[in-house]
Structure prediction request, 204 residues.
Amino acid sequence: MFGWITGVIERLGYAGIAALTFLENVFPPIPSEVVIPLAGFVAARGALRLEIVIAAAFVGSLAGTTAWYALGRRVGQARLQEWVARHGQWITLSPRDLQRADLWFRSHGSWAVCLGRMVPGVRTLISLPAGFTAMPLTRFLVYSAIGTLAWTALLAGAGMILQSNFERVRDYIDVVSNVVLAMFVAVLAFRYVRCWREAASRPT
Prediction:
């Protein structure tokens, strides 16, 4: 898996990184924790420039989170909650996920947008309550940009560290990456089962 992902990133380049990070924000099950470090790894091997990798991932990620903000602001909390209750299981979202993001936002205020961009499980949906409450777009973009840039640089840096120690860990790296993939599939399956059970248990 490791070789396949890095190969895809090498072939698609910066546009591929931006597209992947956009998708991981729009479609919650795709993990940035896999895409961005491997992009940093490819950059460390000389195939890409690290600063442009970070910029591409930043642009894609910020575009994705802004799409959620626009959805929250346009649709509103009540309508979106209703839609997720009926159809959210298809993208592994439940009303509980929206409620958790909303609670995080109300507990931390504007900084929730910044901090939430660095918290797995919250970072994808934190834009929705910002949209629900009509947080000014400029403020939203500033706080989102700070958190997104920090998270992106951190993950890309982790990929650089991985590459610098590649000789030590190369015999184990496919095993580890396959374990990560298996864990990702297991988490995704759990989310699907949970969402479908919750959807089936709600009155029609």
